Amino acid sequence: MLQMNNVSKIYRTDTVETHALREFSLKVEEGEFVSVTGPSGSGKTTFLNIAGLLEDLSSGTYELDGRDISKLNDRERSKVRNEKIGFIFQSFNLIPELNIFDNVDVPLRYRGFKAPERRKRIEESLELVGLASRLEHMPAQLSGGQQQRVAIARALAGEPRFLLADEPTGNLDTNMADSVMDLLGEINSTGTTIIMVTHELTLATRANRNIFVRDGSVSDGPGDLQLAAVAG
Amino acid sequence: MFRYYLRLGILSIRANPALSALMVAAIGIGIGACMTIVTIQYIMSGNPIPEKSDQLFHVRVDSWDPAEPYDEPNEPPEQLTYLDATALHAAGRANRQVISFLSSRVVQPAGEDSKPFQTQSRATTADFFAMFNVPFAHGSGWDKSADDTQERVVVIGQALNEQLFGGENSVGELLTLSGEPYRIVGVLDEWSPVPLFYDLNNNEYNDPAALFLPFSVAVAGEHGSAGNTNCWKPIEDGGVEAFRNSECIWIQMWAELPGEAEKAAYLQFLDAYVEEQKLVGRFPRPLNNRLDNVEEWMDINEVVDEDVSVLLGLAILFLIVCLLNTVGLLLAKVMKRTKDISLRRALGASKATLFAQYIVEASMIGLAGGVLGIGLTWLGLRGIENLFSIFEFVQKLVVMDWVMVLAAVALAIVSALAAALYPTWRACSVTPAAQLRIQ
Amino acid sequence: MELGPIWRAILRNKSSYALIALQIAVTMAIMVNAIAIIQERATQMARPSGTDEDNIITLTSVAFVPDADMRTMIDEDLALLRGMPGVRDAIATNSFPLRSGGWSMSLSTEPGPNSDGIGTAIYFSDEHAIETFGTNLVAGENFAADEITWNNREVSTWPATGILTRALAEELFPEETGSLVGKTVFINENDPVKIVGIVDRLQAPWNGWERVENSMLVPSRRDGEFQRYVIRTEPGMRDEMIPRIEAALAANKDRIIENVRSMTEVRERSYTGDSAMITMLTFIVSLLTVITGLGIVGLASFSVSRRTRQIGVRRALGATRPEIMRYFMIENFLISSVGIITGGILAVALNIYMVQEFALTPLAWYVVPIAMVILWLVGQAAVAGPARRASGISPSIATRSI
Questions:
Q1: C295–B329: do the CB atoms touch at under 8 Å?
Q2: By the CB < 8 Å criterion, does B108 face chain C?
Q3: Which domain holds residue B393?
Q4: What string of DSSP letters covers C266-301?
Q5: pLDDT for the residue A227
Q6: What is the secondary structure of chain A as a DSSP string?
Q7: Residue B275 lies inside a defined structural domain of this protein
Q8: Are the beta carbons of B439 and A171 separated by less than 8 Å?
Q9: How many CB atoms sit inside 10 A of residue B1's CB?
C-alpha cells in the first residue's frame, strides 16, 4: 500500500540545513491501522506531510498504491490526494464560511462528481458520523467533537484507500476523543488503511502497529514495547 | 492615552505600508479631483461685489416680439433698445444708473515706432465708477456734464497705463483712439471682478475693458457694439438714425437702489414708462419688467458653466468611489485583526478605547490624504490651466486660496472619518472571547 | 463549476463584498456617463466645417483712421492677396465657420411677420467665397461678379439672391423633392431672396448652435472698419504664406492686422472646451479604473491572507493550483457582476437625469456592455495577482498548528 525507502527531507535556509527526516523507511500494508508517535520535533509532522503528498521529499523513494510519487507533478499529486487520501486534522480545518454540507462537498467538487452523486455521498458520510441532521449548520455552531466528525465525513466521502489523521483528538476532551477513536476503529474495520500521527501513547494503543520516530528516523523506541505490552 | 493611540496608529500604518499608501492615495486622489472642480465652481460663482451686490439691479423691460417671448418661458430681453436705455437713464429715477455697451478702439501710442493695437472699450455713463466701486490709482471718473457735452475723456485700466506710460500718473495726457484724441481723466487701480458681473452677456470671465469712455461720445462716433445685437423687427431704411430708433436691443442697464422701497418705486417707474410707450405703439407684450440684483442676475445667466456642473457631479461620485475603496480596505484590516482586537478586549480594552484607537488611526490617514489632496488639487488646476492655455481668463479660475486649502483638509478628514465609521463599529463589536478559540 | 458554494461563502461575508460591488457600481455609472459625454463631444468635434481647413488662413483687419475709404481698402487688399503666388483665392467677409461670432437671421418661405422662421448664419461676401472656403456647389450656380453690392453696418438693403447650404434648403422646404434652386425665401420679414445655388456644407460660426449646418452666402460686402479676410493657399503652403501675407498687408498703415490664424487653430480654439472636457473625463475615468482596480487588488490580498489556512486545506483535499486560482477569479467575477449590473442600472438612471438637466444626448445602447466588459476585465486582471499568490500556498499549511 505505502512504502517509503530512505526518505530524507531537508529544510534549507540561507545558513542552516535542518534534516527533518533522514533515511526514513516504512512499509504499511493494505488495511493496517498504524500509529506514528514521537516527541515534539521528531519529524512526525514532516512524515505526515510527505505521506499525504503535502510536501516534496528531498531524496529517497515513496510508493503509494504502487505508484512512484516523486515523479508526479502538482496536478497529479493533487489528484492522488483527492482520490486516494482522506485527511483528518488536529484543528479540524473546516472552512468557516461554508456550511456542513458544503464543507463535505469540497473534495467531491474537485473530484468532478455530478451533483446527485455528490449529494448521495455527502449524506451517506454524514449519516455515518451521526450528523445527517446538521447539513445547514455552520462549523462555528458545532462542538469540537462534532466538527471533527464533519472532518471525518469529509475525509470519507471520497472513499479514499487510506486515511491520514494528524492528532485527531488533540483539541478534544476525553469523551469526544474516545468516540472519535471508536469511529476510526470502525472505519479501519471496513478495510480502510489508517495512519495516525499522535504524541499520545495511549491513543497509539488503539492502532495495530506503532512506529516511533526520533530525530527524523524510525526508532526501536518505546513504541514497539508499548505495542508488545498491549499485544501481550 | 492619545499618544498611545497615535503610536498604535503609526504601528498599524507601518505594518501594512502598501495598503496604507493605497488608502492615503485613494483619499488624496478623490479629494484632489473634487477640490479641483470645487475651486473652479467656487470662483465662478463667487460674489464679485459682496459689499453692495444686493443694491445693484440689472434692468430689463420687455420690448420684445408679441408673437413669442425673448426666452422661454417668459423672459424679457437681457438688453435694452437705444430708445429705452437713453430715456430711462435720462429720467434719473434711481440713486445711480448706468447704461453701457462693449466696443473696441484702436490705441495709437505716441511715437513713430510704436505699433497701434486694438483693445476693448466700454462705452458707459458717469455713475459707472461710483456705482461699481471701481478703485482709482490716479484721477477719477468723468462728470455727468461730460456725458451731456460729449466730451472726449477716457479712463484707462492699470495694465494699459503700465504699457503706455510705465505706470506713471497719466491723468491729463492725451491718448489717440482710432484717430481721435481723448483726454485721460482717471487711471484705475488693479480691478478684475470675477465673474465680470456687470456684463454677463459677453465672456463673463474676461478682464474689464482697458478703456472706459462716455456713452454719448461712443454713440456719436458710431462705435459698433462688440456684444450681441438682437432684433425682432426689421430696421427701417435710414442708416444709423434708423438703427437707433429700431427695436434692436444692444445696451445694458444697471440701477443702484439701496432698499426695498426704492426698488419697488423703481419698478413702478419702469411700468409707468412702458405703459406710456404702449400709447405710441411700442411694447406689444404684456407688462413684464424685471429688476435682478447681482447674485440673481448671475443665477439667471448661469455663470457656472454646465460642463463644470457635470464635472462636479462626477468628481463627487469619484470621491465616493475612493471612500468606498477606503471603507473596504479598513474593514479588511479590521477583519484581519479580529484576533488582536479580541485579545485587547480580553485584556480590558473597552469599546470606547477601541473606538478612539481606530478613529485616531483613520484621522491620520485622512490628514495624510488631505495633504496629498491639496497637492493634487494644485496639480489638477495646473492641468486645467494648461488645457485652456489659449484663453487668458482661465488663469483667474485656477487660483487656490486659503479657504479652498482648509476646505480640502476638512473634506479629507471628514471623508476619512466617514469611511472609518463602519469598520470601527465592526471592530468594536468583536467580542472579547470568541476569536481566541481555535477555529 | 462551483458557483453555488462560492456564492454562499460570499453571502456569509456580505459587508466587505458589498463594498467592492458598490464601488464597482459607482465606477460603472461614472464610466458609462463619461464615455457618453466623450462620445458626444467627439462626434461634434468630428463634424467637418465644410471648408478646406488645412489650407485656410483667417485674419482680422481693423481700420482706425476716421472716415477711411473702406471700399477701396478692401478692394486693394483683395487684389493684393489674390495676386500673391501661393494664394489660391481670398475673400473679405463678416465671419467664417468656427469663429464663434457672426450674424444670424431668420428665413421663411412666406413673407410677413411670423415666428416660425428658420435661423441661419449669414456670410457677406462675393463670388470668390465658394472657391475660398473650398466648399462644393452641388446645384445651381455661383454669384456673378456684377451682382456683388456694398452694404453698411446696418444692412438696410438685402440682395435678392443667396447661396444656401443643403441642410438649410432642405429644412426650409422639407416636402420638396425636386431642385430647390430658383425657389424664393424671405429675409427680414419681407425681402425676397432667390436661391441661386446650393453648397453641400458650410457651417455657421457657432459650433454649439443647434442649427450649425445652416448658413447662407450673400452677394454683398459690408464696408465697416472691421473686416475678416479668409485666404486659401495652394495645398501645403499655408504655414509659409502666413508671414508673407502679414508682411504684404502691413504696407497699409491705416489699419491693423490681428488674429492671424490658420483654420486649424481656429478649430482648436473653437473646440477648446470640448477637447478639454474629453481630456478631463478620460483622465477621471482612467484614474477611477486604476483606483478601483487597486482596491480590488488590496481587498483580494487581504482575503487571500485571511484564508491562507483554508486554501492549504483545499489544496490538501485535492484542489490543484489552477483550481485555487479559479476560485478567486470566479469569486471576483460574481462580486463584479453584482456591481456591474447594479452599476448598469445606476448608469442609466444617471444618464436620464443628465439628459434632462444638461441636455446631453442620451447614451448609445452599446456603451453599457462595453463598460461592463471593461470592468469585468479590470476585476479579473486585478484579482489575478492575489489569486496567483493564493495558488502558491503550500498544502502543508493544513497540518501546521496555529
A1: yes
A2: yes
A3: 2-45+305-438
A4: HHHHHTHHHHHHHHHHHHHHHHHHHHHHHHHHHHHH
A5: 46
A6: -EEEEEEEEEEE-SS-EEEEEEEEEEEE-TT-EEEEE--TTSSHHHHHHHHTTSS--SEEEEEETTEEGGG--HHHHHHHHHHHEEEE-TT----TTS-HHHHHHHHHHHHT--HHHHHHHHHHHHHHTT-GGGTT--GGGS-HHHHHHHHHHHHHHT--SEEEEESTTTTS-HHHHHHHHHHHHHHHHTT-EEEEE-S-HHHHTTSSEEEEEETTEEE-SHHHHHHHHHH-
A7: yes
A8: no
A9: 9
pLDDT tens, B200-239? Answer: 888 788 889 999 999 999 999 889 888 888 888 888 777 7
Q: Which residues contact B48 (CB under 8 A, 6 or more apart)?
A: B193, B194, B195, B196, B197, B294
Cis, bond preceding B195 (omega within 30 deg of 0): yes
Whether B51 is in a domain gets the answer no
Is B378 in the same domain as B258? no
ipTM: 0.87
Structure-model confidence comparison of residues C212 and A201, the more confident one? C212
Q: Is residue B50 part of a domain?
A: no
Same domain, B34 and B66: no
With left for phi above 0 and alpha for psi between -120 and 50, is residue C236 left, alpha or beta? left
**Chain B residues in contact with chain A using a Cβ-Cβ cutoff of 8 Å:** 438-439
Spans in chain C with pLDDT lower than 50: none
Q: How far is CA B147 from CA B101, B138, B153, B215, B219, in A?
A: 15, 20, 10, 7, 11
Q: Say if residue B276 is in the same domain as residue B316.
A: no
Q: Which residues of B touch C22 (CB under 8 A)?
A: 324
The distance of Cα A108 from the centroid of its chain, to the nearest Å, equals: 17
Q: Are C347 and C28 in contact (CB under 8 A)?
A: yes
Distance from CA of A137 to the nearest CA of B (A): 15
| CA–CA separation, B161 and B168 (whole Å) | 7
Domain assignment present for residue B88? The answer is yes
Smallest Cβ–Cβ distance between C5 and the set A53, A78, A105 belongs to A105
Phi then psi for B215, rounded to 5 degrees? Answer: -55, -45
The count of structural domains within chain B is 2
Verdict on whether the full-model pTM lies above 0.95: no
Cell of B352: 470606547
Q: Which residue of A has its CA nearest to C5?
A: A102
Say if residue B26 is in the same domain as residue B98.
Answer: no
CA C231 to CA B124: how far, in whole Å? 37
Q: Considering B300, B327, B347, which residue would you say is the last residue of a domain? A: B300
Do A49 and C399 lie within an 8 Å CB cutoff? Answer: yes
Q: Are residues B364 and B379 both part of a single domain? A: yes
Please give the pLDDT value at position A222. 52
From first CA to last CA, the distance across chain B in angstroms is 33
Long-range contacts of A141-148 (CB under 8 A, 24+ apart): A142/A100, A143/A176, A144/A92, A144/A171, A144/A172, A144/A173, A144/A176, A145/A172, A145/A173, A145/A175, A145/A176, A145/A179, A145/A180, A147/A92, A147/A94, A148/A88, A148/A92, A148/A172, A148/A176, A148/A180
Residue B365 is predicted with a pLDDT of 87
Taking Cα atoms as reference points, which of B222, B242, B223 lies closest to residue B233? B242
